Amino acid sequence: MWRATILTLFPEMFPGLLSHSLSGKALAAGVWGMEAADIRASATDRHGTVDDTPFGGGPGMVMRPDVVDRAIRAAQGPGPLLVMSPRGKVFDQDLAAKLAAGPGLRILCGRYEGIDQRVVEAHGAREVSIGDYVLSGGEAAAMVVVDSCVRLLPGVMGNTATSDEESFVSGLREYPHYTRPALWRNDDGVERAVPAVLLSGHHEKIRQWRLDQARSVTEERRPDLWHRYVEQSPEVSYNGPTFGKS
Ligand code: SAH
Question: pTM to 2 decimals?
Answer without folding.
Answer: 0.93
